[in-house]
Automatic annotation (TrEMBL):
Residues annotated as signal peptide: none
Originating organism: Nannocystis radixulma
Source organism, top-level taxon: Bacteria
Pfam family, one: Thioredox_DsbH
SUPFAM superfamilies to which the protein is assigned, alphabetical: Six-hairpin glycosidases, Thioredoxin-like
InterPro entries: 6-hairpin_glycosidase_sf, Ssp411, Ssp411-like_TRX, Thioredoxin-like_sf
Protein name: Thioredoxin domain-containing protein
Domain Spermatogenesis-associated protein 20-like TRX: 1-161
């Protein structure tokens, strides 16, 4: 075993038996590189990454390849989910070299951490237009020994390029605040939707929930984008990217039609999509599949991803028993063996596309709905309700049998940021379920959110508002980043709006105060990924662009604006948020990269609404709170809600553009004040 056996990262532990002399990122490895003047081979990945596993099997487990690595490099393994600061810096190397970013990330550094070459996956033999990994190792070893000046020159060029990328897109041209910028961004995104299969572009296809949120906001404003949104949401649900037995979504589909996923399931995807489908279910209550996704995703997260302390694990792998998708796929014979009836197996196979030839590898089939359930029911001469009544027990049997299979590896680390996203997702699910009249689902979803929040505040947040990122087996470690502060703070604000418990709002304000004090760029015009006392890397990266998850910048701006609307923001919060929006005005031309910031900007618009519910207790203002919740899906503008202690009787104050209504004590009057001209 190598040094990674003692790591707290499940991903690093996967490499503990490699013959490679791996180090985790830290002083021991970096000092050895300096002392011996040897280049660093930096390998970045994560536990659910399929091609990370492929490269590990082909190269890192190969003794000859490992011998080359050990002889000529100091080899460092990084879990990008634990250290996004390192990953974000060195991803820029492959972008500068004209390659798409992604994982595995393979970058070669000088002993002082400057990159001089990089790529992603390298094969064991020349293929995919790339040299073999061993060829690359030998070539770079020779370059280091015989052409050191060239290495130094390349390192300086890449470092200059990294600095330019970090400074790019920061002109203040344009505006982000108000209906026109939102409409422009939504129009740009809508034009990129696949008109036949939904989703953005052709293949591969990622859910990209943050961009879909922009379309949802615009739809609430003027009704546009309904067709594109519903097409995307339905095609994702019907496709193989959705787990039709347990619920939840895989990370992405490799094809245009959402059929073949990479089967890893990430907490962040399911957190973001849970909230999106919940909101959509209120916008289009006649589309029953939206509710179904919410119910099943909540059940999946609670059953498969919840840790003993109430917070949630990071991911599950794509592979089991060395075969991608084996855990999730079926053959007709397997269906018949489990269901015990040829008729039931044939019926299920016809509905979910299980074919003797298979639609995936090794003759296996990925479950999917080739036709909408209503079409299938009509073809079979039965009602949709009767179809579902027959399918439900069959799915239950197959799920029970699937749990007897060897499951994919689960990454059991707890990430603060991703749990923050999930708290928001659960709250939105709870608020939607309450509107449907499913009080038990609403209660359970809210309880899951509260338990996760309590655990994070107790174990991940210090007395001064500083935050830790990772919990593995109860051992909380690694300094947190801006996204950890921002996502948790937003989750706490969402909890406050759902429960009216002021403690959640107070905790969110403390996290925002810490971000302003320790992450803000000079002049309050942005935020750094790391705190001012964090480890110094070759650059202190600013948070700017969205990725698979929203940017820390976009969500922190939202948090600051919502706290300001409630009158409980830390000093300087509004000014910092507005400075960020002004500086990033050009973001309107890049909605894919800045969707979260564009969405957050709408809380700074004059149309934004804040409702203060005032009374002696949250229970006393319950009827008014329910009126606000029922009105929210029909409002054009962004809405923030807060509770304030006051004497009876209960009252609500509705504020827009620095003007507030008189106290409203009647639900009808409150509804009229909220909807009126600001609704559809």
């Amino acid at each position: 075993m190598n040094r990674l056996a003692q790591s707290k990262s499940p991903y690093l532990r996967q490499h503990a038996d490699n013959p490679v002399d791996w180090y985790p990122w830290g002083d021991e490895a970096l000092e050895r590189a300096r002392r011996e003047d040897r280049p660093i081979l930096l390998s970045v990945g994560y536990s659910a990454c399929h091609w990370c596993h492929v490269m590990a099997h082909e190269s890192f487990e190969d003794p000859e390849t490992a011998a080359l690595m050990n002889a000529h490099f100091i080899n460092i393994k990084v879990d990008r989910e634990e250290r996004p600061d390192i990953d974000e810096i060195y991803q820029k190397v492959v972008l500068l070299m004209g390659q798409g970013g992604g994982w595995p990330l393979t970058v070669f550094l000088t002993p002082d951490h400057r990159p001089f070459y990089g790529g992603t996956y390298f094969p064991p033999v020349p293929s995919y237009g790339r040299p073999s990994f061993r060829q690359l190792l030998l070539a770079l070893t020779d370059l280091w020994k015989t052409r050191r000046a060239d290495v130094e020159g390349q390192a300086e060029q890449l470092l200059d390029g990294i600095r330019e990328l970090s400074a790019g897109g920061q002109d203040g041209e344009g505006a982000l605040v108000g209906p026109a910028p939102l409409a422009a961004a939504a129009s740009d995104l809508r034009a990129k939707i696949d008109p036949e299969w939904g989703g953005f572009g052709r293949q591969p296809k990622f859910p990209n929930a943050t961009c879909l949120e922009v379309l949802m906001l615009q739809n609430r404003s003027d009704g546009t984008g309904e067709q594109e949104l519903l097409l995307t949401l339905e095609k994702m649900w019907r496709g193989g990217i959705y787990d039709h037995l347990r619920g939840g979504f895989a990370r992405y589909a490799v094809d245009q039609v959402w059929l073949v996923p990479h089967f890893e399931k990430m907490l962040y995807d399911n957190a973001l999509l849970l909230g999106l489908y919940a909101d959509a279910s209120l916008r289009w209550p006649e589309r029953g599949f939206l509710r179904r996704v919410v119910r099943e995703t909540v059940a999946y997260l609670e059953a498969d991803m919840r840790g003993p302390a109430g917070s949630f694990y990071a991911a599950t792998d794509a592979d089991s028993e060395g075969v991608e998708g084996k855990y999730f796929c079926w053959t007709p014979a397997q269906l018949e063996a489990v269901l015990g009836s040829r008729d039931d197996a044939a019926f299920f196979a016809a509905v979910y596309g299980v074919d003797p030839r298979g639609n995936f590898e090794h003759g296996m089939s990925i479950l999917h709905l080739g036709q909408p359930p209503e079409v299938v029911a009509d073809r079979l001469g039965m009602t949709e309700a009767a179809l579902e009544a027959r399918l439900a027990p069959l799915r239950d049997k197959l799920l029970a049998a699937r749990y007897q299979r060897v499951p994919p590896l689960r990454d059991d680390k707890i990430l603060t940021a991703w749990n923050g996203l999930l708290i928001s997702g659960f709250v939105r699910a709870a608020m939607a379920a309450e509107q449907w009249g499913e009080s038990e689902l609403a209660r359970r979803s809210l309880a899951l959110a509260e338990a996760a929040a309590r655990r994070l505040l107790a174990a991940h947040v210090g007395r001064n508002g500083d935050i830790m990122r990772v919990d593995f087996g109860g051992d909380v470690h690694t300094r947190g980043y801006l996204e950890d502060l921002a996502f948790l703070a937003r989750g706490l604000l969402d909890l406050h709006e759902a429960t009216l418990d002021v403690a959640w709002q107070t905790a969110a304000a403390e996290l925002a105060r810490y971000a302003l004090a320790h992450h803000a760029v000079a002049g309050g015009i942005g935020f750094y990924v790391t705190a001012d006392d964090a480890e110094r890397l070759i650059e202190r990266t600013e948070s700017q662009h969205d990725s698979a998850i929203p940017s820390g910048l976009g969500v922190m701006v939202e948090v600051l604006l919502r706290l300001d609307l409630a009158g409980v923001a830390p000093a300087g919060a509004r000014a910092a948020a507005e400075a960020c929006l002004q500086r990033q005005g050009a973001a309107i031309r890049q909605p894919f990269a800045f969707a979260s910031l564009i969405a957050a900007a709408q809380f700074a618009a004059p149309e934004a609404v804040h409702v203060t519910l005032r009374g002696p207790s949250p229970e006393v203002v319950g009827e008014l709170a329910r009126t606000v919740a029922a009105a929210r899906p029909h409002m054009r503008a962004r809405l923030a809600v807060s509770f304030e202690l006051g004497e009876a009787p209960a009252a609500a104050l509705v504020c827009r553009a620095q003007v507030c209504s008189a106290p409203l004590r009647d639900s009808g009057a409150l509804r009229e004040a909220l909807l009126g001209e600001a609704s559809r």
